[in-house]
Write a structure and sequence with these properties.
Elements (H helix, E strand, L loop, with lengths): L1 E2 L24 E9 L18 E3 L4 E3 L5 E6 L3 E5 L5 E2 L11 E4 L21 E2 L1 E5 L5 E7 L7 H12 L9 E6 L11 H9 L5 E3 L18 H6 L5 E5 L2 E5 L3 E3 L12 E3 L3 H12 L6 E5 L10 H8 L5 E5 L6 E5 L11 E5 L29 E8 L2 E8 L8 E4 L3 E2 L1 H4 L3 E6 L7 E5 L6 E2 L1 E2 L5 H9 L19 E5 L7 E10 L5 E10 L1
Helix pairs in contact: 1-2
């Protein structure tokens, strides 16, 4: 029997243990072939050659195929095998553009859970064959990154469709692929597949990262917390190449179960575990030092309990970027020695804007979708990551707004002459960081440097107070948080009545320049 992948439904009973158990020993050896699927039918036909030098993993070990595409790996009765997509090749995708690059060997199926896992897969196939097809991949490409999509029901899937997905149908941003950085849904896993169908309308391959709201909450320990995930998406951690860049998807959600969660928020903690760290070490051993590595995870890197071990693996790589979501804010963190990072140059970690913003809350906009402004005052949306060799840049994109919408300028609509001097102007630069330069011109052509303000966005605070008693189906905004991309400067020089422009110019860490203007009336 030769197979490619297996997706199905759970049937057996959960064990009573609430312990996090390490992987079981291997009980046998699996083998297969990675092959050139010339006719793209998903099976190896006569004359379709094997492909040498392709990495294959069982989520513990990583091996390369021989010159004829053959591979062998150990297995037990709960083993996920996957191929690491190499540059210039593509794995199959399903009708909703979810990559199918794995085979789940689970002879007895998943434990019985509220949200179904994998059906019994039966005996190990005699050959597990992975099809690849040739594609062109440039050194320069763009990827779309979504923070938490997190719909709690089908109504919120519709919010996502109206506000985020519809403008992206046809791929106007030119994305080679997309990534959702966890919290794909909000606890109700029955929403997962409608959500996947919705994102699939964009029309490009889409990869998914496991979040703390994507797990089986009735699982008694971490081993069985991702059974539904395995049925829908496959492995909870894996890697792939696109162009000259190596992408690694990590599972940094450790489920501790509700019964053992007295000291853990929602029964989980942020961690990777010894098995995943060993896999990562083996995975990166096949990646040259001059190749950019992008680590994709849900919970920010600085919250991972075993981050010191992760740092040891990536510290010596000169080109490494990491991306997360989870906090419902946009932030650039630069991890330094005070965080346990031992390399002199800081590590760049991006906490990506969420597509659900503040969990789909706030007053409705023109389309009936909540404005759902994030807690740091930035709008909900997504990011464009642009890659060129081992370099990258990032652009913020606000939902249903033009690419030029990169900031909000807060100033009074009108002031009297006597009040103008010293009145504070605030600017929220959505994709800004402590490496951004932000300047203000009061219409006189002179640019003045603005001061970074680690404060609450003043307009978000007003909106949260104003909307505190919203009625169903809408919900009030969540509480505000300190913004890391807010700047301020007092007005000066307005000593005559009139209408004047306030110009703000920002230059980000990538050299990208954005300018915005608003007016103020002096009475």
């Amino acid at each position: 029997m030769r197979v490619i992948l297996s997706l199905a439904i759970a049937v057996v009973a959960l064990p009573a243990s609430a312990q996090v158990v390490p992987p079981a020993p291997y009980t046998g050896t699996a083998k297969g072939v990675v092959f050139d699927d010339e006719n793209r039918n998903g099976k190896r036909d006569q004359g379709e050659r094997g492909i040498g030098g392709v990495r294959v993993s069982n989520m513990r070990d990583v091996v390369k195929t021989d010159r004829n595409g053959n591979w062998q790996l150990g297995h037990n009765d709960d083993t996920m095998f996957f191929v690491v997509k190499p540059r210039g090749w593509m794995t199959p995708v399903d009708e909703h553009k979810v990559p199918r690059f794995y085979y789940n060997h689970k002879p007895s199926g998943s434990p019985k859970l509220r949200h179904a896992g994998v059906a019994p897969t039966g005996p190990l196939p005699e050959s597990i064959d992975f099809p690849l097809t040739k594609v062109k991949e440039s050194d320069k490409f763009t990827a779309l990154f979504f923070g938490d999509t997190q719909p709690r029901d089908l109504r919120e899937v519709d919010y996502l469709a109206r506000d985020i997905i519809e403008p992206l149908i046809g791929n106007p941003d030119g994305g080679a692929f997309g990534v959702t950085l966890g919290d794909v849904v909000f606890d109700d896993l029955s929403v997962t597949e409608p959500l996947v169908r919705t994102i699939g309308m964009i029309g490009i391959p889409w990869y998914y990262v496991l979040g703390n709201h994507d797990i089986n909450y009735d699982a008694t320990d971490d081993r069985f917390s991702d059974e539904h995930w395995e049925r829908v998406f496959g492995p909870s951690y894996y890697s792939f190449d696109y162009g000259p860049t190596h992408f690694v998807v990590l599972d940094n959600v450790v489920w501790t179960s509700a019964a053992n969660a007295a000291d853990q928020k929602q029964g989980y903690k942020a961690g990777l575990g010894a098995a995943q760290l060993e896999w990562l070490k083996q995975d990166l051993a096949h990646v040259p030092a001059n190749q950019l590595v992008v680590l994709c995870m849900h919970i920010p890197m600085t919250e991972i309990q075993d981050r010191a071990q992760l740092f040891e693996i990536i510290e010596q790589r000169p080109y490494c970027l990491s991306v997360s979501a989870h906090t419902h804010m946009q932030e650039h963190r630069f991890i330094t020695t005070k965080d346990g990072w031992k390399k002199p140059e800081p590590h760049h970690h991006v906490i990506n804007v969420t597509t659900c913003g503040s969990w789909w809350t706030g007053a409705p906009g023109p389309l009936g979708v909540p404005h759902t402004t994030m807690r740091d005052g930035a709008p909900h949306g997504y990011s464009l990551f642009k890659f060129d060799g081992n370099q990258y840049s990032i652009e913020f994109r606000a939902a249903r707004r033009p690419a030029s919408y990169q900031m909000n300028i807060y100033a009074p609509e009108s002031l009297k002459v006597a009040e103008a001097r010293g009145t504070m102007v605030y600017v929220n630069v959505f994709g800004g960081s402590d490496k951004s330069k932000v300047e203000m011109s009061l219409g006189d052509g002179k640019w003045r440097s603005m001061l970074r303000a680690l404060e609450i966005d003043p307009e978000f605070k007003k909106a949260a107070d104003r909307e505190a008693k919203l009625e169903k189906p809408y919900r009030p905004l969540s509480g505000p948080a300190i913004s890391t991309h807010l700047w301020k400067l007092p007005l000066s020089g307005y000593d005559k009545p009139g209408v004047y422009p306030i110009h703000v110019r920002t230059t980000d860490m990538f050299g990208q320049v954005f300018v915005s203007t608003r007016s103020i009336r002096i009475e």
